[in-house]
């Protein structure tokens, strides 16, 4: 707007003043992930999912997405069906894990740790 071009150090200076902005360097896609995410694998997974839903007459409101942290042995004792997504496809089939839930979990753990430091819990 002033007719001047930003200097070569503009970005570095901007980041120094705005610590809330982080620089993220993307990593190349692992070849195993690229190979695993293919139409044959994905179609087979969704065909299996449709078959399981139809065979067991699972209402849509009873379908949940979870990861290994959300699975425990209680599931097997309560007529809960577990269907795993194909390996090396979570980057496409569960994009919120990386972009939303991962950072949320990190922030939540930090929040809990900060709260614990401010007001320690009674020993068990």
Provide structural commentary.
- With 124 residues, this protein is mainly alpha-helical.
- The chain has two domains: 29-87, no CATH class; 94-124.
- The chain has five helices and no strands.
- The protein has helices at 10-17, 31-36, 39-55, 90-93, 95-118.
- The chain starts with 9 loop residues before the first helix and ends in a 6-residue tail after the last helix.
- This is DDE-1 domain-containing protein.
- Residues 72-111 form the DDE-1 domain.
- Pfam families: DDE_1 (PF03184).
- GO terms for molecular function: nucleic acid binding.
Query: How many domains comprise the coordinates?
Result: 2
Strand content: under 5%
The ordered string of helix (H) and strand (E) elements is HHHHH
Largest sheet data: none
Helix count from the secondary structure assignment: 5
Helix content: 40-55%
The end-to-end span amounts to: 62 Å
Segments where pLDDT lies below 50 for 5+ residues?
none
SSE-based structural type = mainly alpha
* Rg value: 23 Å
Note the overall shape. Answer: flat
Which whole number gives the mean pLDDT? 80
Number of DSSP E strands: 0
Domain DDE-1: 72-111
InterPro entries: DDE_SF_endonuclease_dom
Organism: Sphaerobolus stellatus (strain SS14)
Protein name: DDE-1 domain-containing protein
């Amino acid at each position: 707007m002033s007719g001047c071009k930003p200097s070569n150090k503009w970005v570095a200076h901007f980041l120094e003043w705005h610590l809330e902005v982080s620089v993220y360097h993307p990593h190349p896609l692992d070849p195993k992930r690229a190979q695993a995410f293919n139409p044959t694998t994905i179609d087979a997974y969704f065909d299996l999912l449709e078959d399981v839903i139809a065979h067991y007459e699972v209402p849509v409101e009873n379908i949940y997405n979870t990861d290994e942290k959300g699975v425990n042995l209680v599931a097997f004792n309560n007529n809960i069906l577990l269907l795993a997504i194909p390996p090396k496809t979570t980057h496409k089939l569960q994009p919120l894990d990386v972009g939303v839930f991962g950072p949320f979990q990190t922030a939540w753990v930090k929040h809990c740790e900060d709260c614990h430091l401010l007001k320690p819990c009674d020993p068990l």
